[in-house]
Every structure is written in C-alpha cells, then in structure tokens.
C-alpha cells in the first residue's frame, strides 16, 4: 500500500510520546502567552499593524513574483537599507522566512571543496543548510571554540563556521568572540544566526554580532528573522555588500522563491523604526528573562539561566512535558513544549518567552501555574 510505512512511524511516535498536533488559536485568547517568540510584544502594536495594512493597501496582498522578477518593491529595499544600518552591517537581503535565509547563507557560502563547521546545538534550518550545501560538514560540540579551531586546522581550503547566536532550546548564547578568533586564525568565515538576538541583545537590540563588535566585519555574516522581536514574518541575511551580491546570484531560496509579502515587509519596517525610537524594550526583555528565571528557581524548578529572552524549564520525560504544558494551558497559561527530535540533548523542556510587555503580576501568575502543575 502506498505510504503504508507512515502508519508504523505514527505508532512509534505515539508510543514515544512524540505526537505533534496543530492547535489553531483564536484572534483573542484568554491565555497568558509565554509560548510565542514575540519578545518585544510588537506583533499587535498599533504601529506595526498599521505598517502591515498600509503596505497591503499600497502594494497589494502579495509580492507577485520572485525577487528577481517582480517581487522586489521599493518597500523591500527600504527595509533592507534600514535593517543593515540598524544592525551595523554594510548590506542586507530580505527573504520570505528566516529558514530560507539560513538555507541561503549556508549553501551559497559553502561551495564544493569547502568545510562547514557546525555547532551541535544549531537550529534545524542551519542543519538543513549544511545538508544541502556542497561542502563537507563537521559537527562539533556545543559552544566549543577549541573544537572549532581543531576542525579548521584539518582543512586547507575555504571554510565557514555556522552557529546560532542564542540557542533556541535553552536560551544560552554562543561565545562569538572566541568563535570569531578561531575563524580569523584559520581564514574562515563566520555565519551567525541571530534570530533570538535581534531586538534583545546589543545596544538597543541591535543583535549579538553588534554586541560582540563583529557587525560590519568583512568575514562575518548574520542571519535574522523578522518574525520574533519585530513581530512580523520573513528573514534576512546581513553582511558585506559583495556577500549579499553573491547571494542574489547564487542562493536558490532567493532566486526561486516568491518575495516576502508587502504586508510583512511593512510590519517589520514599522517595528524596526519603533525599536529605534524605544531602545529600552530590549533591556526590558532581558530584565524580564532574568526575573522569570529567578522566580522559577526560587520555586524549586530546574530552569536554565537565560542569556537573552528564552527561559527553559526541564521536564522529566517527553510525556511529562506534554502533560505539563497541557495542564498549564488548562490553568490559563500557554507555554512551549520542546521534545526530541527538536532538542539535541534528548531532554524535554517547557520553553518560555520572557516578553518585554509582561507585568509583575503576570510573572507571578505564570510561575505559580508552572510550579503548581509540575509532573
């Protein structure tokens, strides 16, 4: 029978407690949201919503084609120019998603004969980029610059090191200074996925590469998503102009993909301008994360100290994590639930978002629910 093997895999997932289901949410929800990536609370901000609506009224519902045909509007180039300037890079290129941006950066910058050194904790989009690239990939231990240097010493040709800036599972930050030093010692490029750093880390939320003094360097490329701190949709690659020009000509997820919808570009641009005017939002997100972690640990929970806005709480098992998240939901709190294969170490977790717009009362209530429903 066609696709008969699907039933066997479904049964294996059920037995392991790894079944995933879609849960459509209403426009208005009574739940306190600690599950989304809306770190700055901008997804429903009136200026951001109006930015999306105005762009749709002006440019239409879709971009109408790939970026190289009709899908590049003046709005896209305006967003790219302001995003690059904000983050401290020479140029930027906007994609339809952060996933597509990561695939583009890795595959286009790792040709045949090159070496890709990838952190074991990297996001799936970077991992898939490594799989699709024509270069050879070597996976090294998590946040281990010495292992990166050792891997680079084994290769005489072109090389690139790829790493998240903030890892999405535990919220820990990569040692970017040490990674950059290892790259420069061996003439390698550094690609940093700053999806969870933009809007949270750096001066006014300019990102982890900016905080590390790496923004604008000719050997550093950053990728970002517009769907987290900026409350919109899409992604971008930031770097030297010659790298961005290369992506326009070589990145398949740019050349063959429909351009980002104008509404998403307009929303992201409005959010970026809002963050530029209100840089304190980034510091507030970090402060909320630290406060949430302190309250969770004081309640006896196994929470990992955050380096940005992601706070994870470890669960005893995949089944326990699913039940814990469901019980939180019943009690009025939405939390993320990370299980294998989404977690590289096999440890299931609740994943919490420390949003900049959370109040003290909401934090108290969240911790009370999480502590009261623990397995």
- Helical content (DSSP H or I, runs of 4+): 40-55%
The separation of the N and C termini measures: 41 Å
**Kindly state the mean pLDDT as a whole number?**
96
Strand content: 5-15%
Order of strands across the biggest sheet? 2-8-7-6-5-3-4
Put simply, the count of helices is 14
- How is the main sheet built? 7 strands, mixed
| Rg over C-alpha atoms, rounded to the nearest angstrom | 21 Å
Structural class: alpha/beta
Report the count of strand segments.
11
Low-confidence stretches: none
Shape: globular
Q: What are the secondary-structure elements, in order, as H or E? A: HEHHEHEHEHEHEHEEHHHHEHEEH
Structural write-up:
The chain is globular. With 375 residues, the protein is of the alpha/beta class. Helix 2 runs antiparallel to helix 11, helix 3 packs parallel to helix 11 and helix 6 packs parallel to helix 7. It has helices spanning 5-16, 46-59, 74-87, 98-108, 124-132, 145-153, 176-185, 208-211, 241-250, 252-255, 262-277, 280-298, 318-330, 360-372, and strands at 32-34, 91-95, 115-119, 136-140, 159-164, 189-193, 220-225, 235-239, 310-314, 333-338, 349-353. The longest helix has 19 residues, at 280-298. The strands form two sheets. The protein has a seven-stranded mixed β-sheet with strand order 2-8-7-6-5-3-4, with helices on both faces. A four-stranded mixed β-sheet has the order 1-10-11-9. The chain is built from 14 helices and eleven strands. 42% of the residues lie in helices and 15% in strands. The relative contact order is 0.17.
